[in-house]
Design a protein that fits this description.
heterodimer; A: mainly alpha; two-stranded antiparallel sheet; 2 strands; B: mainly alpha; two-stranded antiparallel ribbon; 77% helix; 1% strand; globular
């Protein structure tokens, strides 16, 4: 694990004193002409060293292409029910067979993937954007405002989020758009709390004080100086948020409060297939289940590597 | 310490009040929802108005809230119109069941996860570490219900080793006296929990292994065993206790899936049934009570944190 870099210590042979030699760029002349690398470039180098992360990234790109471009190549009928094909086993015509309504399972995975990925990515984006701004404002404001804003976060975090999601789904008919809003509405306090913590340490820095001295408004300090410096935390959080949102959506789909027919998502597909579990129609269960797990694991791999990349970028480069 | 406890208690009360406000107003977004759920979709506006008046749903929402809050503070969660039972009696039978399953499940998860996390940290970057990490990734990448149903398929339907249902006994003693039926639900809980806790423990131990006090302990000649268990382990647990408190809502929320899959009549299943029937009183009561249980759990975790870590001074 990342040890704090030790300055090289040696005993000077002439004086017998302990010489502490701090490695600096000045000792390596060939580094002089190298352009200073941006934060993202250094981050990418650490990221790219992590093989699991590359596998994760590869899978995410694959599954996005599969869901959104795939239907153009592998054409299936996803609009009306074809009962003659119901439960058909995998064949050359239907690579992974058909479900109980005669929908081709591969095509259904693409179609459901569109929902799962759209909801996952959008909910993560909205939750992290709102949460970050909320957290930054709260941490920057401090005092009573901060205390009050954080009690709201505490309150929402202590309500088991699945209950709130179900309440919302019962009251408002669930669709892709409302699902994004619901998941974002329950997820934002997590990022908010983390960004607030980051802001607390950032707001005492000189460059934030300089904004105040120069007469800049608070909104400028938050949006131009604090948020960009907390971007590492935010991006890492957003990656995990995508994984969490996909799982949450599948859970809601399983309980029947998710995206409704004729639309579908991987969770609803899985829950539909599980009704026929002990009849031996494995193609109704395992493809959807494995797709969820692999996608979520891939996003988690990326998130882990990003965290390492942002944490170690200062220590290692 | 006493001052800290008092401040923490005031915070807890404020948070609980905010929770009641959020849940109450959320559930009363739809006007006449409750009455409509009882009378059905074909009820005439006049019937709805009459019933609303009889149950007090025609009053302004803040009045309804304050009345409800006053009753709740007296332990009265209202009357479940759909089931003709007081809400509190439904909850007092379901809550202990959920707590028992959650405690056993999380306990087993911790008992596996913590030693595994330590083992991984000691053998870091070896093949076995990567394998356990990989299994862990699958563990928290899988939807809980999927794990539960796979276990049912493999161990109950295919192999006939364990029953597919959780204990159906009404009393706690009855539930605990049927340990065979508890195996699959507990295993589901534990599989998800072990992944989480071994990961937390691994990184917590790794954070501590590079600390100065570890070098000091080695320098003074403590055995590796003593360094690990006497120094690193104890300090790593501090993080775990805090995280345990923060994970409570997730654990209790996860109960809904496990209880649904194994048909275990706890709070989660009760909530699911209430949601299907749009039973607003019951949903409200369950959400508020589980949240209060979580908040109390958080408070306990914080107090535990203060006792474990003498450096923490609350002034």
């Amino acid at each position: 694990m990342a040890m704090t870099p030790h300055p090289e210590t040696a005993v000077d042979p002439e004086s017998g004193l302990l010489v502490v030699e701090t490695p600096t760029d000045a000792h390596e002349p060939d580094q002089k002409d190298v352009k200073p690398r941006s934060m993202f470039r250094r981050g990418w180098e650490v990221f790219a060293e992590n093989r699991l992360a590359l596998v994760g990234l590869g899978f995410v790109i694959f599954i996005i292409l599969f869901s959104f471009v795939g239907p153009l190549i592998y054409k299936t009928q996803q609009v009306s029910v074809t009962l003659a094909d119901a439960y058909c086993p995998p064949s050359t015509q239907h690579l992974l067979g058909c479900d109980n309504l005669g929908y081709d399972v591969v095509g259904r995975l693409m179609y459901g993937g569109q929902s799962s990925l759209e909801v996952g990515l959008a909910a993560a984006f909205v939750a992290c954007l709102f949460g970050s701004i909320y957290g930054a404002v709260s941490g920057f404001a401090g005092g009573v405002v901060d205390a009050f804003m954080m009690r709201i976060v505490d309150a929402i975090l202590s309500i088991p989020f699945i209950f709130v999601l179900i309440i919302l789904a019962v009251l408002i008919h669930p669709s892709r758009l409302t699902m994004i809003a619901f998941i974002a509405a329950t997820y934002w306090p997590g990022p908010a709390r983390l960004v607030r913590g980051e802001t607390l340490s950032l707001r005492t820095r000189e460059y934030v004080a300089a904004v105040k001295v120069a007469g800049g408004r608070s909104s400028r300090a938050v949006l131009r100086h604090i948020m960009p410096n907390a971007i590492g935390t935010i991006i890492v959080q957003a990656t995990f948020a995508v994984a969490d949102s996909i799982i949450i959506l599948s859970g809601l789909g399983f309980l029947g409060f998710g995206i409704q027919l004729p639309q579908t998502d991987w969770g609803s597909m899985l829950s539909n297939g599980l009704q026929f579990m002990n009849l031996g129609y494995w193609w109704l269960i395992y493809p959807a289940g494995l797709t969820i797990i692999l996608t979520v694991v891939a996003f988690n791999f990326i998130g882990d590597a990003l965290r390492d990349a942002f944490e170690t970028r200062l220590q290692r480069r | 310490m006493v001052g800290y406890l008092i401040r923490r208690l005031i915070q807890t009360i404020i948070v609980t009040l905010i929770v009641t406000i959020i849940t109450f107003f959320l559930l009363h977004l739809v006007p006449g929802g409750e009455v409509r759920a009882v009378l059905g979709v074909r009820a005439s506006p006049a019937e709805i108005a009459a019933d609303s008046k009889a149950w007090g749903f025609d009053q302004p929402i803040y009045i309804q809230y304050l009345k409800w809050l006053w009753q709740v503070m007296h332990g009265n969660f209202g009357f479940d119109i759909l089931r003709s039972t007081p809400v509190s009696s439904l909850i007092w039978t379901a809550l202990p069941r959920t707590i028992v399953l959650a405690v056993i499940g999380t306990g087993v998860g911790l008992l596996i996860g913590i030693p595994l996390g330590i083992f991984q940290a000691v053998r870091r970057y070896t093949a076995i570490d990567h394998i356990v990490t990989g299994v862990g990734f699958v563990g928290y990448g899988s939807p809980t219900f999927f794990i539960g149903l796979l276990l049912v398929q493999w161990f109950a339907i295919d192999l006939h080793i364990f029953p597919a249902f959780a204990p159906q006994a009404t009393s706690l003693v009855g539930i605990l006296s049927d340990p065979v039926a508890l195996v699959l639900p507990v295993a589901t809980y534990a599989f998800v929990a072990f992944a989480l806790w071994s990961r937390f423990m691994r990184s917590s131990v790794l954070d501590n292994i590079v600390q100065d006090y570890v070098r000091t302990a080695r320098a003074k000649g403590a055995s590796e065993r003593r360094v690990l268990w006497g120094h690193i382990f104890r300090n790593s647990l501090i993080t775990i206790v805090t995280l345990l408190g923060l994970q409570l809502p997730v654990v209790i929320g996860g109960a809904i899936f496990i209880e649904y899959v194994f048909n275990y009549p706890g709070m989660g299943l009760l909530f699911f049934q209430a949601a299907e029937a749009t039973d607003i009183q019951l949903m409200l009561a369950i959400t508020v009570i589980t949240t209060v249980v979580t908040i109390l759990g958080n408070l306990l975790a914080d107090i535990g944190y203060a006792m474990l870590d003498p450096r923490v001074r609350y002034s």
